[in-house]
Structures are given as C-alpha cells and as structure tokens.
Amino acid sequence: MHFLDLLSGQPASHHRKRHYQFKETLGVGGFAEVKKATCIDDGQDFAIKIIPKAKIRDHEQQIFRQNTLLKLKHPHIIETKEWFESKERYYLVFELAAGGELFEHLIESPNYRFSEAEAREVVYALVDGVKYLHEKNIIHRDLKPENVLYRTPPGSHPEVGHDDCVISDFGLAAYLPPGERLYTIAGSAGYSAPEMYPREGISSGKGQGNGYGLKADVWSLGVIAFCCMGGRFPFKKTDPFELAEEARTTKLYFPKTWDVISDDAKHFVRWLLTVDEEKRPSIQEAIRHPWLRAAISRPPSPHNEPNLPVFTPQPSRANSPDPNDVPHLERKDTIEVPKFEELGQKLSRQETVTRHAPVVEHTETLEALGMNKEPIKVEESS
What pLDDT score was predicted for residue 296? Predict the structure, then answer.
C-alpha cells in the first residue's frame, strides 16, 4: 500500500489510480460514467468506468462481478484489464473500443438499418460472444445495440468479414448454475424476453412465473437482428408488460421493407424470437443456423466448433435452411401484413428497468468460474 493511501485510509489498490491520466468523458449513465484515460507506464489508451459506491447496494456482488470480468477473454467480449477502488468509487479499466456504438451506427445508416450482409457479420460476432458467455453459465441480461462497441469503425477490415465489435456493459450479468432459474427483473424493456414479464405479474422486482434462463439472451439477440435489418423494433408496445403480452399474442411479421431480405434471415430472426422458451434455440443451436454459416469469415474466433460445414447459397432461389439443422420451428417466413398494421417504433435508447429492482440474489452470482466464494470485505464510502 502506498504511504499516502495508508495515511488517508484509502483501499490498498488505490495507488493504481496514479498510473492513469484521466481525459475526456466518453459516456454517462444512470450508475456510472466512462472516461478515456492514458496509462502513464506505456502510453496506451483505455476506457475507465467509474462507479460511485453510494449507488451500489451489494458491494460483495460488485467486486465478484469485477473479478469475473478479468477472466473473460474472447474476441467479441470487451476486455477488462484491471480494476481498483477508492473510498468512494470503483474504477474498471477496459480496452478502448473507439469505433463507436452499434446503436449510433444503426441510426446513422440509411433508414436506420444495415444491409443484410453487414447485419449478418455483426449478428454472427454477437452470437459468437454470447455462446462463450453461456458456456461459462453467464447470462448478460442487457444485450442491446447501445452495449455493443466497435473497436474500429464498421467496414474498416473488409478482408476479415465480421465487424470488429465487442459486447460490453456487464453491470447486470449474472451466473446461472445449470438447471436453475432467475426471477429478478433486469435489462432493457425493448429487448427483454417475454418470460421475464410473466402474466402472473411481479412482486418486489421479481417475476411470479417460472423465471427465465440463458435463452433470454437469445431473444435479445433476435431483437437486435431484427433492428439491424429492419430499423425498427419487432413489436409496437413500449411498456414491458404490454410488450411481453403483444409478443405472446401476435404473430411476428416482416413488412415490405424486408422483401430484399433473404428467407434464411427471416427464418433466423423468427427462430430467435420464438415466444415458447422451450422451442427457442439455445445459443449453441443458433450459431449453427445456415444464415450465420454464410458469414464471410467463419469462424471469426478460435472458440467456435471446428469443421462445421459451410452453407452455400443456391443461385436459383432464396436460401433455405435444412429442417433437420434448425429444429423446433415451423417454417413460416412470409406473412401478409394488413395495410393498416403499424410497425414497431423506430430505434431509440431504451430505459433500463432495474433501477428499483431489488439487489440480485447472491445465489445468482457467487459461483461463476469457480472463484472463491468467501465474502470480500469492502471499505464503505466515507
């Protein structure tokens, strides 16, 4: 411990703060702000997330989550370099993904959407990253375009194929032991799976139904894929309970703007947005869909299954997946849309609905990656 820290009562790791020169603010959220910083030791730039301890209701859980992030190493997951703390704040040091948010690039694109080819590369990268998380029994719970960052601007490396984007913001991530369920309401309403908002209602921030599992992330990926190619949300409602009910009681449709999109892409989106959680694909099944197999660079990371056959598009007709390869879904790619039917709202930043939810239970987080389960004492804010 640094002598000055000892005199001032700062935590042992506080001396690490002196190794960084803090610069401009990159973003501000409800719980934290992110600043650009340069490491004085080697001149490398990073992004540092600063979280006031006064806004944290479970310090033990927060420290556990930060230690877990240090163990996540994947090309499509934001890399955490280190973390340290002061008496009043936590500081999380991440790689600097300076290419902008997926959200910003989407709303700046013509008609708020990407081409199908570009969308496929982005979605493949995200599915690949979520597959890595789910294999470690980690659920993200807040997948949305605002939480996807580009290391470099999209299209900077056409020879690579997939865009160099990473999943970020693990503030709501949790460990989910096999066979267990979560009940705490978490995430952003427009991207939350319908099972998170059961018809039985909620009590003290927890759903009263059967809970939700890892496939809630798969639903979120389906919404992102729809937004990337459609420029709008797949459903009209904005209230989370009304949206969940709309998803349960109406059929997903693709408007005229989707006429240029392949049947495979529509099938993939519809598959991920399967309301029945049992019939919704796992992330391991989703990554094998023929639409993703047609990505330019497959696999984009060393964490994918080896020797997976590549789907070759047929020039004579729209691509059709092998029914044996994508089970659990009835093939219905096109639906007539009544002229009076309204589309979902255009892309917008969705409010996170966890501000008043209770603290996530320790049983949801304290076993990830075989880490020490002993309580970690944290000096409270002074």
Answer: 75
What is the rounded CA–CA span in Å between residue 157 and residue 323?
Answer: 34
Angle at 236 between CA 232 and CA 238, to 5 degrees: 100
Is 322 an annotated catalytic residue?
Answer: no
Q: Determine contact, residues 348/144, Cβ cutoff 8 Å.
A: no
224: its two tokens: 């992102």
DSSP string spanning 203-261? ETTEESSS-B-THHHHHHHHHHHHHHHHSB-SSS--SHHHHHHHHHHS-----GGGGGS
Q: Are strands 206-207 and 138-139 parallel, antiparallel or unpaired?
A: unpaired
Q: How far apart are CA 341 and CA 212, in angstroms?
A: 31
Cα 335 to Cα 155: distance, rounded to the nearest angstrom: 33
Say whether the peptide bond before residue 299 is cis (omega within 30 degrees of 0).
yes
Rounded distance between C-alpha atoms, residue 213 and residue 137, angstroms: 10
Q: Which of 5, 142, 163, 169 is the catalytic position? A: 142
Q: Show the tokens assigned to 334.
A: 């096109």
Residue 278 half-sphere exposure toward CB, CA atoms < 13 A: 1
pLDDT at 301 over 60: no
Give 241-285 pLDDT, tens digit per residue.
999 999 999 989 898 999 999 999 999 999 999 999 999 999 999
pLDDT per position as a tens digit, 48-69: 999 999 988 889 888 988 999 9
Find how far residue 57's CA is from the centre of its chain. 23
User: Contact at 8 Å (CB) between 166 and 126?
Assistant: no
What CA–CA distances, in Å, run from 108 to 25, 82, 111, 263? 22, 33, 8, 26
292: left (phi > 0), else alpha (psi -120 to 50), else beta? alpha
Rounded Cα–Cα distance for residues 246 and 241 (Å): 9
Partner residues linked to 175 by β-bridges: 138
Contact 174, 363 (CB under 8 A): no
Q: Which amino acid appears at position 97 of this protein?
A: A
| pLDDT score at 199 | 92
Task: Give the tens place of pLDDT for each residue, 334-364.
Answer: 333 333 345 567 776 765 544 333 333 323 3
